[in-house]
Design goal:
Largest sheet: none
Helix content: 55-70%
Number of helices: 2
Radius of gyration: 18 Å
Number of strands: 0
Order of helices and strands: HH
């Protein structure tokens, strides 16, 4: 489970970096804008929703338990 969450976070950060690359590159020097930034941000949203649903499912199935904050601290 830890590896799935870590992999999802790496994928989310990678898609943000790709979106930044397309944002800085597209439309400069007379080039036409491509849909690269939109695709990268769509992938980021999809990965975020998938991560949330996987965590929710893992909680419902009992694979993970909420810890919360310790009382009295």
């Amino acid at each position: 489970m830890k590896y799935l969450v870590a992999l999802a976070f790496i994928g989310i950060l990678a898609s943000l970096v790709v979106a930044l690359f397309f944002m800085l590159r597209d439309g400069r020097e007379g080039r036409a804008k491509s849909g690269g930034m939109v695709r990268a941000l769509t992938v980021r949203i999809g990965l975020s929703v998938l991560l949330f649903l996987c965590l929710l499912l893992a909680w419902k199935l009992g694979y993970i338990q909420p810890g919360g904050l310790p009382l009295g601290k």
